[in-house]
Amino acid sequence: MKLQRRTLLRGMFQGSVAVMGVPFLDCFLDSKGQALAATGQRIPTRFSTFFFGLGLTTSLWVPKKAGLDYDTTVQLKPLEPFKKKMNVFSGMRVMVDDNPNFQHWSGNAAIATGIAPTKNSQFDSKTIDQTIADVISRGTRYKTVQAAASGDPKHCYSSLGGANTLPAEPTPLSLYTRLFGPGFQDPSSGDWKPDPQVMLQQSVLSTVSDERKDFMKDLGAGDRARMDQYFTSVREAELQMAAELKRPDVIAKVAIPGNPGEMPVNYALPNVRTVTPLMAKLGALAMATDQTRVFNLAISEPGSNIFVPGDPLGYHITTHMEAIDTALGYQPKVAEYNIYSMEILASVLKEMDAIQEGDGTLLDHSLLMAYSDQSYAKIHAVDGIPIMLAGNASGRMKTGYHIAGGGNPVSRVGLTVQKAMGIAIDNWGKGSMETRSAYTELLA
Amino acid sequence: MFLRSFFLGSAVAAAFVAALVQPAAAAPWTRGFVVREYGFAFRYGGREGRPETAPAADCARGSAVHFDNENEMRKALSRQKWRSKQEIDYIVAPPGIEQARLPTYVRFYVWGRAVSYRGWRKGIETYINPFAADDPGQPQVVSKISDGFDLDGDQKTGGFSSPDGVRGVDNALYRAWGCDAPFRNPASGTLDLRENTQMQEGLYTVVIRLSGNQNPMNDNDATVEIGYSPDKIVRDARANVASDYSYRIVKSEQYTKLKAKIKNGVVETEQVDRLHVPRIGWFPDQMGDADFHKGRLGLKIDSDGRAASGFVGGYRNWLDLLSENTFAQTGAEQGIRDHEDAVALYYALKRNADGLPDPKTGRNTAISMAYRIKAVPAHVVDPAMPAQVRRLKEDEARVKGFEMVKAAMIKAVTTKIVQPVPLGTGEGQFPAMENTIADLPSKEFFLKNLDAPGRLDEKGNVLPLAPAPTPERQVNNTTATTIASQSAP
Amino acid sequence: MRSKVILAIAALLSCAICGDLAAWAAGSTQVVGLRRLSEQEYRNSIADIFGKDISVQGMFEPQIRISGLLATSTSVLSVTPVGFEAFSKMADGIALQVTDEKHRGELVSCTPKSATAADEACASEFLGHYGLLLFRRPLTASELKARMDLARSMTKSSGDFYTGLRYGLAQLLQSPNFLFRKEVAMRKGGTLALEPYSRATRLSYLMWDTTPDSELLQSAQSGELNTVAGLEKQVNRLLASPRLESGMRAFFTDMLALDTFDTVSKDALIYPKWGGAMPPSAKEETLRTVINLTLRENGDVRDMMTTRKTFLNRSMAALYDVDFTFDDDWMAHEFPKESGRSGIVTQVSMLSMFSHPGQSSPTKRGVALMDIFLCEPTPTPPANVDFSAINDTTGPLKTVRERLMAHANTPTCASCHNHSDPIGLSLEGFDTIGGRRLTENGQLIDLSASLQGKKFQDGTGLGQYLRDNPRFPACMARKLYAYAKAVDTEEVEPSVFKAAYKSFTDSGFRLRALIKGLALSPEFFTASPHVQEVSAGQTKLASSP
After folding, report:
1. A154 to chain C, closest Cα gap in Å
2. C176 touching A, CB under 8 A?
3. Residue A367: beta bridge partners?
4. What is the pLDDT of residues A405-441, one digit of tens each?
5. A238-260 tens-digit pLDDT
6. Quick one: which H or E segment has residue B316?
7. ipTM, two decimals
8. Does C85 touch chain A (CB under 8 A)?
9. Judging by DSSP bridges, how do beta strands B289-301 and B355-357 pair with one another?
10. Could you tell me the residue range of the domain that residue B346 belongs to?
């Protein structure tokens, strides 16, 4: 097929932009000297988030001992197989300053942005996964991929800021189709070739980008910001296409499974238990084949409506309505729901750890941040929200620790995460949560 | 009208609620049900959770195990004196079977073909001509308790008592057939489960409507209607049959409407000379009316009206029953897969038949029996237009095949003239066996020695056997042991 | 028939910039609204422009409810990368279908001189025609040129004329000018008045939930729409059309929060009956009820609180435990008086949406209905409330009412609960899937309620209370105004819909009168000079028990 010169130039130009990020990443990986696949290809470090609603029960999950070799508590028990590969953070604070404590929002928004939100259901900045993706995802087909295991595309806490969140894939089938449906080429396949359609699409997108100046005319400030986001999205699509023209660097040693088919995806716990590892597996394969380097998975909204069949109230309402058992000192049913969250997290880590690449597993070449919206959901408390980091980020993160936060802001975790992911950043967060001190003792 | 609860003592409140739940007395009322479980009233004598094969009070040695293993096969084949030892050895374990691509199918079809030909001489397909085979024997129910009705009003006949203590229950079908593996124990019998599953998945729908002028739980002038519905059964989120959906009731010439009395929720209908109710079945060709002689229906309605269970029964033509069951698939398939021997059932039914004697021969043409019913509440409505039973166009060929085979069997057993297998019907596993053993090293032996309902030309077209077998008669065959000795020509 | 439409539109193209539009081009204008198309608006627009044969496949970004309306979020939300990727794929899919061999005969009005080479006249006709329909205004000369250039280069590189059209059209379909409804106003004295194409667009999406038809575009082009008589003529035309039902379905779906059904889960162990066709059917029942009452019967809108007339399919008949007739997929049904049903507040949709998976919730119901029907949102509860008394069924308090009262009597809780609970408590005669019940844990349920000095009993009493409450029609007028302009319901000043409300009351609360009053009121097409900023979620429905 003959292509017009302008089209080709644009395509090449954008291709080069896409490649530019790679040398940087290469240096970073080379410096560790270990992240090389068996094939000799460099293995990128990936970032994931795992969101679970309604926290844990403090008396049942916080280890008594801090540091290495901490005691495994009742609610951390499901994560025991991964104890050496993860860090847990207790006692971290969300400082809302003069802002309201938006129930089931301020906590998770603060962890994701370092900023106490000024508006309910909105983020005051880009979320941490997007900041990281800006740096590490250049050249991949998708900057980030997100999935929602109880079937609602709104269950995604990844945002470029404001009220918009990135819609999540609400079923394993839709996630599969997006990742491995039309447009996917297995990078390990011998006849990989760029799709000429992509180049044509690129030139269409460039004319859409050209509309920017005219369209912005006469817009108020709020609408300008919205259209900035729109044109950023157009730009992302252009970059995505550029990436599709280039064979991914990583040679996957994984088999792409068949189409998972339709299945019930909703709040019923048995379904969440089935769907989550399936989605995690697809996300892990997407990272292993370098379709993306950032995968966000939420098993519910904050204030989770997950329910065990037979429980008329479900998780969220139970946290409010169940009495504290005076003998036990906690809400027994809630404590069970808490454990389900951890079991489901373990099922996600298991999928990531099952993929071998280079000298380790996909989990070893990842950093996964698991977090929640509340610490003690019954009273919508945010101080001490559980946060866990799994994977050692290709050796950049030391693992096996329990960090007793002692009232430090949650933003310290976010800053540490970004440093481990190689983001050039010195301080993060706003107000009382602005911090310059990462947990350097965890950084290798 | 509404009263504040604090005005009411709890007893008053309960009465108030009860008054709201139960419709007022002496007003026209209607109650509908959709049947969620429908099957032979074969009372399982074992404990819950035990399999259909286990010995229990109903079947002292457990269920029948026809063709269940190599020993059983050898037993069945040894009755045909014309088979050589090599032939029996080859059939039981086809040489080279491990080299075939589909060994289980090879065995299934070879065994199936072999058991389809158990006549007193070679060449008689004995599912169509069961009279020409030796009676392999069928274990009988030995329990004294049975579900069903005292159909002849004689407490001395029947030989069963109901669980509620009614004496003289006539359910000879249970005695004859109740130890048959696929129909014993509703929790595990394969065909009982299968027909209920198919019904729930939409093969057919049976509805019941009760109406009266007094009270749904007590009415001495009530009416019971039962029939097919053209509307598929709806299942709920737990896959059970959902309650409260509407269903139309098919009204055909044979539409069934019975007078009934209801006492404390127990519904007893009149007994009628001819009662038409839907048959049980798991294939479209089994659909149709079951015609009961001296038929009646009994139901027990739960006090809240949310469930009904009971029986419908009478005397049914036993050849109808046999063919509806045997030719649902093929005699061989029922035999090898479900361990049921239709030849054994033929003799068992014939022995136990207890109703409608043929005026000429005096032999009973019908057998006492009942279907069990479990139902959930539904809205049974009259269709604006006469409704039909669901039947798909693509099922027509199958229905035609079934009718052909059934007609051949009835002709055979009434005339005692051996009938050929109607070609194109699949009975006798033809040419399924020939196709399946193509890669069996010993296939030539089977092609040469096993009987077949037809032959194949070089292109694989089905041709009739030539010449057609000459009509011949067989001696009367009523017991299992006498025949074998006189079978050699 | 389509070719006639094309001819009519061709006439518009000849006057791409004229009349009031010139002022817009000259720069004395301001963008006063920028609304992302909703999924239904997008689908309806594509179906109207290209025909129902063209399929639209892909995921749309979710909307969020702001002060009770999803529509309001259309002026807050943007397009995320994932959302744009979906729009981009949809655009290509649509453009491919429109220009394929099956459809081009009908949808491409001209025939190129050669199928393998560029044809400026035909490409211009095609892109100009669909540009007008998609952008809801004529393309400027430079806008048209940009697409022509793209189409030409694509034709050249592919050697196929229709490939050029395909990519030109795909470009129009992912342009912000299509994906966003840009509302442009011109300064006239101290106020900003909407230019005619923006008027046509606002009217059309409000009343028909779709893109303006050629007649409406024509009246914008001729300036007729900016005259009192011309506007009234078009408003009457739109009101008289059966397509008004689509528009009002969209409004009621939004106002009644019926979109919530897409994610309602019920506990199959406790309520196995729920499932299958029931959730979409429950939504449809309510829509059919309100459309029938307000448009087909031209009834008093307030009667939606008391009517016992409804429409049921087989699933809903099972849920309500009544006979279904099988004459059609849906049947008209009137509940008997003793059914306890009264209007849409006692329909399965409203009762089940605002409940827990396995248990009804007077608070959820109360909070939702107060907000939906009376525009009285309830503040979110304080963070550290102890709700455990509500769930203790082992104690002496058997019914939800008793347990709720024990909790609500604490001073911090009382003010809000006294506000919202009475509505919910009067509906306790219906379980979480909307089935009727008389007792709870063996105790007869007390269905009495007292609200704002009025006492009533059960769902029937509630329906009558709401029907007689003047806040209900006022709230509906406010919501329709906010919906039409995508502004925050709570920030709407009563003065701006005063005229509309007067025609509403004068007509005996007929919906058409309200819409007409709104569309003809001077405030409807004006904006205050500063751009309103809507904040998301400040007052979203309280989600706690």
Report:
1. 6
2. yes
3. A47
4. 888 999 999 999 999 998 988 899 999 899 999 999 9
5. 888 888 888 776 655 788 888 99
6. strand B308-317
7. 0.87
8. yes
9. unpaired
10. 29-57+138-391
